[in-house]
Design a protein that fits this description.
By secondary structure, the chain is α+β, with helices and mostly antiparallel strands. It has a single domain, classed as Lipoprotein localisation LolA/LolB/LppX (outer membrane lipoprotein receptor (LolB), chain A, Clam). It contains four helices and eleven strands, in the order ααββββββαββαβββ. The longest helix has 17 residues.
């Protein structure tokens, strides 16, 4: 009987450990540690925009590439084509034959949005004092909720939610909740980390 009890304890101990609650600080530390190892990321994405007033959804697809610390290419491929490139302090937006280049330092709001886009997919938001952060473990993943602290961000977003895959050590889904009731879900697929990226894709000139 004693041997049986010992065997039972050994078998159930891992289950008890897995069921334990992990603290917010521990989750943030783990995500931040993993984010620091990501130098480049490339993936496909599906973006679903839900508009409260129209009661409809707009689904678009594309691909994303980013490099630490300040390079991002966000490219929509369907149902329309549109390219957004962040390179250091400049943003390039291209739609059809029109291309606009903006110095983000001259537009505070634009700078904030560009930073959110980059930091969200990399999981770097926790060092940004612009947000109050909560984090929990849910359904085998980490879920981090970011509440805007700055006036400009509060006017746009009520919260940003990141779903973090613990096994792959990366963000898999980003939810943006706007003040007007609209919300956007961005799901990342076919993610590749730390593979070489041709710097030419970030050309904003």
């Amino acid at each position: 009987m004693n041997r049986f009890l010992l065997w039972l304890v050994c078998c159930l101990s891992p289950l008890a450990f897995w069921g334990q609650e992990i603290s917010k600080d521990a989750i943030i530390k783990e995500i931040s540690r993993s984010a620091a190892t990501i130098k480049t990321m490339q993936c496909d994405f599906v973006q679903t925009k839900r508009m409260k007033m129209l009661g409809s959804e707009l689904v678009s697809k594309g691909r994303m590439s980013c490099s630490q610390p300040d390079k991002l290419r966000w490219e929509y491929l369907s149902p329309y084509t549109y390219t957004f490139v962040l390179y250091k302090n400049k943003v390039m937006m291209k739609k059809g034959e029109r291309t606009d280049v903006i110095d983000v330092n001259s537009n505070r709001m634009f700078k904030e949005i560009a930073a959110i886009m980059l930091n969200s997919v990399l999981g770097n938001c926790f060092s940004d004092k612009s947000f109050e952060v909560d984090a929990k473990q849910e359904n085998g993943q980490y879920v981090a909720t970011l509440l805007p602290m700055k006036k400009e961000m509060k006017m746009m977003f009520s919260r940003i939610v990141l779903h973090y895959d613990k096994v792959q050590s990366m963000v898999r889904e980003v939810e943006l909740y706007e003040k007007n009731g609209d919300n956007t879900t961005i799901t990342l697929t076919h993610v590749r980390k730390n593979e070489p990226i041709d710097e030419k894709i970030y050309d904003v000139e």
